[in-house]
Write a structure and sequence with these properties.
two-stranded parallel sheet; 4 helices; globular
Length: 137
C-alpha cells in the first residue's frame, strides 16, 4: 500500500489564566511560553489527561492565588511533524543530531533538553508537537 496514513488526533488539556485560555479558545491563539529551556523549551504545553491538568491548575493557584485559572481542551493533530521522545530510538536519534549540530555550531553539549529543543527547532523546524513523559519529585 502506498500513501500516507491518516492523521491521528489526540485530546490535550491546557491550564492557564482565564484571559489566555479564553483567547486560545476564541481566537485560536497559541499560549506560548518563553520557557528558558530547562523543561521542554518554548511552546504551548498540554497534558494528556484531565487529572494532570487539574494538578497543574492547583499548582498555579498555590503560586498565585490572585488570578483565576481554567483548563481547556484542544484536539491536536499528530502528523509528520510529531516528535515522540517517549520512543527511545527517536530520542537517541535526536541526541545524535544534537551532538552533531552542537559540535558544528559550538553549542553547549551539556545543555538542558528544553534549550536543545529550542536550538534544534530554530536550526531546522522539523517538529511541531513533542511528546514526552516526565517525573516530578
Amino acid at each position: 500500500m502506498s500513501g500516507s496514513s491518516p492523521m491521528q488526533i489526540i485530546k490535550g488539556y491546557h491550564c492557564n489564566d482565564l484571559e489566555k485560555t479564553k483567547n486560545f479558545i476564541e481566537n485560536k491563539e497559541l499560549v506560548m511560553t518563553s520557557e528558558n529551556g530547562h523543561w521542554l523549551g518554548s511552546g504551548m504545553y498540554f497534558w494528556d489527561n484531565l487529572s494532570n491538568a487539574h494538578y497543574w491548575k492547583s499548582e498555579k493557584i498555590r503560586k498565585d492565588p490572585t488570578k483565576s485559572y481554567e483548563v481547556c481542551i484542544a484536539f491536536i493533530g499528530l502528523d509528520d511533524t510529531f516528535l515522540d521522545l517517549t520512543d527511545l530510538d527517536i530520542a537517541n536519534k535526536i541526541q545524535e543530531l544534537w551532538e552533531e549540530l552542537a559540535k558544528e555550531k559550538k553549542w553547549d553539549s551539556k545543555a538542558p533538553l528544553g534549550l536543545k529543543l529550542n536550538l534544534l527547532y530554530d536550526a531546522m523546524p522539523f517538529f511541531d508537537v513533542i511528546k514526552v513523559s516526565g517525573s516530578y519529585p
